[in-house]
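Here is one chain, start to finish.
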Amino acid sequence: MQTQELQYREIITAAGDAFSVPEYIVRMDDATLKGWQLRYGEWTDYQDRAVGKSGAEKALAIAIEEMISRIEYKGK
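Its structure:
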C-alpha cells in the first residue's frame, strides 16, 4: 500500500510569524488557546510552550511528532 505525501501550507500566526504546517494541524489564536490543534483521530491541543515564535515552534514540533506517530499507526 502506498501512502500519499502530506500537504503543507504556510500559516501566519496572530503575532505575524510564518510556519510551514502539515494538513492535519491548524493554528488556534483565540482566548482559549494560543497554539496548534492536531486534527487526525482525536483532536488534540498543543499550547505554545513560551511566548514568541520559539514557543510556537516547540509546540508545532510536538504536534507534528504526534501526527506522524498516528499516521504510522493508523495509516493515511
